[in-house]
Specification:
This protein is mainly alpha-helical and about 425 residues long. It has 2 domains: about 160 residues, no CATH class; about 200 residues, no CATH class. Helices cover about 55% and strands about 5% of the residues. The protein contains 16 helices and 5 strands. A 3-stranded mixed β-sheet has the order 2-4-3.
Length: about 425
């Protein structure tokens, strides 16, 4: 067996992805389906790849706050400083172990390619997703991470980002929702929806400066100070877009199995962002003009902009360029940090392409809604159907034929409850 060092492994990765990418079905053309065969494929894929396809935990930074202080201190002294980040854990995969595992999955994928049914085409895609996740895992915090990230997250070339040249976000300091209030609002809504998730303030992970869904928890960063506009979108995104949807997606693991696939994550994040947009459209009429904000609708664009900059610039250069868009230093720091996490050094060119999922996911969901010419109710029916498992939009046409046997998650009544409860909160807190 070939023994890989850093250079030879990176050469092998580039060649491997280039050769194998063209073999993956871009559309699902067949229609046959076997539940028994699905379970067989799923169990084999799970046994080979499940332990080594989770990459997000490898990008969790442990010293963000201390590096943030050093960065801003240098900034105010007109000095250049690129943060030196430490990570919670490193990859358990050596180059040789990763290559051997990818080759096993490749053999499985070639076996599946002989199955001309829709299931065979679907699992070719799923197995290749697992191969790319393992490669990304093995290169986290190492040279070549940016390349692996771009391939895993299937970053697409864009002609323009649709981002305005200048941004301005005035904020009324009296209309701020603090972390403890956010937790109270989230828990109240979760209880009304019958979800067992627990809302709490997180003091462990400094990355959680927003709201995030984690297993059975809704975590709120202790330093979180949010505007009403931000809270509406954030709570809709996390409570309806992740917590509620995840309860349904986990019910059918064999039928809709995706092992940390970027395509399925892109669909899920696109749905969550869209639900946040719809919630804000419905509830902004209860906010004063000063409390309304366009910033949240531009977050996916800003995250994409940060990635486009980070892949060609250092951390410092990316941050400075973002501040020229007239956004505050805290937001610029957060955007730059997200674009650089997982790299071995923030001084080198390169990016983590994860946050492009928000922009392209929303873009794909909007295109589907426009194509079908859907009204609000029809949009929620579509989002409900799209939320019935961890699949991607390419598979939707085939898989929706089998949805008749599955129960909807009830996104429309859940959205109505969400609106009712949050309207009460907004009126009691902000309308005098």
């Amino acid at each position: 067996m070939t023994h890989f060092d850093s250079k030879s492994y990176l050469r092998w990765v580039k060649e491997y992805i280039k050769i194998n990418k063209g073999e993956i079905p871009q559309i699902i053309t067949a229609n046959q389906y076997s539940r028994q065969k699905d379970r067989e494929y799923y169990q084999r894929l799970k046994s080979l790849a499940q332990k080594f396809t989770k990459t997000y935990s490898l990008h969790a930074i442990t010293n963000e706050l201390s590096e943030q202080k050093k960065f801003f201190r240098a900034l105010y002294e007109n000095k250049i400083y690129n943060p030196i980040f430490h990570y919670r854990k490193s990859s358990p995969l050596t180059f040789n172990k990763a290559a051997a595992l990818v080759k096993k999955l490749n053999a499985f994928r070639r076996e599946v390619s002989g199955d001309e049914s829709a299931l065979g085409q679907i699992y070719q895609r799923r197995i290749f997703d697992a191969e790319k996740a393992i490669i990304l895992n093995s290169l986290s915090q190492k040279k070549g991470f940016s390349l692996a990230s771009r391939e895993y997250y299937e970053f697409k070339k864009i002609k323009h980002s649709e981002l305005p040249a200048k941004l301005s976000f005035p904020r009324n300091k009296q209309e701020i929702i603090e972390a403890y209030e956010t937790v109270y609002f989230a828990q109240k809504i979760l209880s009304k929806l019958g979800l067992k998730h627990r809302a709490k303030i997180s003091t462990i992970d400094s990355r959680l400066q927003g709201i995030i869904t984690s297993r059975k928890n809704i975590k709120v960063g202790i330093c979180t100070l949010r505007s009403p506009a931000r809270i509406i979108r954030s709570l809709a995104h996390e409570v309806l877009g992740h917590a509620l949807i995840s309860t349904n997606a986990r019910k059918y693991p064999a039928f809709f199995a995706r092992h940390n696939s970027s395509a399925s994550i892109r669909k899920e994040e696109g749905i969550a962002v869209k639900i946040g947009e719809l919630a804000y459209q419905e509830l902004q009429k209860f906010l004063t003009p000063q409390a309304r904000s366009r910033r949240e609708s531009l977050i996916p664009h800003l995250r994409l902009k940060a990635i486009l900059l980070a892949r060609k610039k250092s951390f410092y250069q990316t941050f400075i360029t973002l501040t020229k868009l007239n956004i505050n230093n805290d937001l610029a720091w957060d955007l730059t940090l997200r674009a650089k996490r997982g790299l071995r050094s923030s001084e080198v060119k390169g990016a983590n392409y994860h946050d492009s999922l928000y922009f392209f996911g929303l873009k794909e969901i909007n295109a589907l809604i426009k194509q079908e010419n859907l009204d609000l109710k029809q949009t929620f029916i579509l989002l409900d159907r799209l939320s019935q498992g961890k699949f991607d939009l390419v598979e939707f046409t085939f898989l929706k034929q089998h949805f008749i046997n599955y129960k909807n998650i009830g996104l429309i009544p859940a959205f109505d409850i969400f609106k009712k409860e949050l309207t009460k909160i907004i009126q009691s807190k902000f309308i005098k």
